[in-house]
Amino acid sequence: MLTETGRVVALDxxxxxxxxxxxxxxxxxxxxxxxxxxxxxxxxxxxxxxKALYPASVLTTSPTxxxxxxxxxxxxxxxxxxxxxxxxxxSYGVPLGAALVSVFCASKFNLNEPLMLLAGFVGLLLxxxxxxxxxxxxxxxxxxxxxxxxxxxxxxxxxxxxxxxPLV
Length: 168
What we know:
About 40% of the residues lie in helices and about 20% in strands.
């Protein structure tokens, strides 16, 4: 499970909206002065808002009590590693695969390089369209949604999470 700690900014009946800080490893990278990622990271906002759903066990045991946390509380949210890897593969692998297949098909017709480049670009765009349509369909699955893990205890307490539940 990939986890992140954040601050609750809003409450919903089925989950919480959490504000997290974007993490950057630019300080530890060897190319920190020659990379444009650091500059882009500094230009953008450092906070992200994510909706984290309550686990099914929390909703079934107390469907009317949605005040497990309050606005301003520090909470831990997470997403299943397998779901993250699947989403990463779909997001990057499908467009790249479509581009490679289209370039391979163009090469079978003995097209010149500019047309093969165009075929690769068209394949990349078609792969992006496939990803966009499939993510709309997959967005309804809770396995791709961040889940509320628990409230973080105050002040260096050894037990940092009060509620824990596996993803459903």
